[in-house]
Each structure stands twice: as structure tokens, then as C-alpha cells.
Amino acid sequence: MQELIARTKKYFRFEKQEIIQLLIVTLFTGFIFTFRDWGIESLDAGLGFTHLVLAILLALIALFFRVSVQKITGFAFGFNSTFMLWWAGLIISLVLVFISQGYVPILLPGGIAMAMMVRHRLGEFRYGFNYWEQGIIAYSGSLANILLAVIFKILLSFNPESWFLHKGLFMNIILALTIALPLPKLDGMTGFFSSRLTYFFSYGVLVGISILIFFTTIIWTMLGGLAIGILIWLLFYTMYEGKIG
């Protein structure tokens, strides 16, 4: 733990280009998630702009917290993690929100690129690039978003009518799910190639939590998510992985 704290103090930073890319994603995220929030029956520019600013703030928190957790997790394994924007994914996200009239607010912003910190990898088991460890770093991003979603869920119990809290919960759930998809440039691709079985279990847990968090308590959400993850793991193993093994 002391070593991790020391590495974090020494290496934790966001490069200028990385900050610019994250801010671009933040603006896209704010727009996508407020596409249908510019009035109820007619256009209300004032209300829409207020929602847009609040959504950008939520996106700023969600994205920078996600990447920060991935950076710190990377330091634990001797990797330096940097966010890389995926322009094609952002354009696809924008096209989908227009086509669906805001009913499909997904985000495919990019993911983490990892560089080995040679000095801090010395003595590690299987020195060099380790796909399993990179998978853990990738998964930590979605875990960070789920943690934020849980916090928003708890806060909603005190203020159940809050647009800000509902949007924060929904946004973090969507970010956790979509960035974990096994597509090029997304963190899900890294997790998928680290271990298919672990990927299907982890994504199953994500899907379970993402559904249950809107209908039940935090404890039942976590237990249900774990059960769904195990079920999907078993299905994938019996139908595919076990046969080729």
C-alpha cells in the first residue's frame, strides 16, 4: 500500500492532450444525455441549458473519476494508463442519439492505453505486458462508475425527485456498460482479451447491477448482479468455452 501511495504521488497526473480529450468527451456526454431534456411539451431554452450545464458537470465527475481510478490501479501493477479518445465512437454515439431522438443515449468515447513502467515491473511475475493485469485495470473503470451510481442511488433516498441525482445514476450506469463493450478502442476489448470467462462474468455482473439498481436496494442489487454474473459465466462456459477446452 505504501508503495502504491508513493507511486501515485510521483506519477499521478493528466497530460495536456489527455485533459483536452476528456473535456471533449465531457461535452459530447452532456449533450447526448440531455437530448430530451430541453422542455416537456415545447422547447424551453433556459431549462435545457441548465440541464446541459448540470449534465456536463456530472460527466466531468464520472469521466475523471473513472480514469483516475484506472491510473491508480495501473500504478499498482506497474503500468501508466492514459485515456485515448475514439472519434469514430463519439460520432456513432451522436448519430444514434439523433436517430433515436434521444432514446438511445450510449457513449463510445475511447479507453485506456497502457504503457509499462519498466522500473516498477522488475521482479513481477511474468515481467512484461500481462493481459490479466491489464484486464483488471480496464475493469476498474466500470467499477468506478458503478461506485458513483451507488452513491447517487443512496442520495436519491433523501431526495427522490432530484433530476441531477437521477441523471447522475443513469449516466454512470450507461458509461459502465458501454465502455465495457468489447469494441476496438474501448476498455471492454482489453478485458475481453485478458480472459473471456472473466469478461462474461464481469459484464454479467454489470448488466445485473445496471438493471436491479433501479428497482431494489443496494444490497439486493449487488447480490442479484453477482448471481446474474455467475449465471452468464456458466452459460458461456457450458455452451462455448467448455467445448473448445
> N-to-C SSE series?
HHHEHEHHHHHH
Please state the CA-atom Rg, rounded to the nearest Å.
19 Å
Going by helix content, strand content and strand pairing, the class is: mainly alpha
Average pLDDT confidence is 89
The helix count comes to 10
Assembly type: single chain
Question: Residue share in helices?
Answer: 55-70%
| Residue windows where pLDDT falls under 50 for at least 5 positions | none
Strand tally is 2
Cα distance spanning the termini: 38 Å
Biggest sheet, spatial arrangement of strands? 1-2
What coarse outline follows from CA principal-axis ratios?
Answer: globular
Percent strand equals 5-15%
Largest sheet: 2 strands, antiparallel
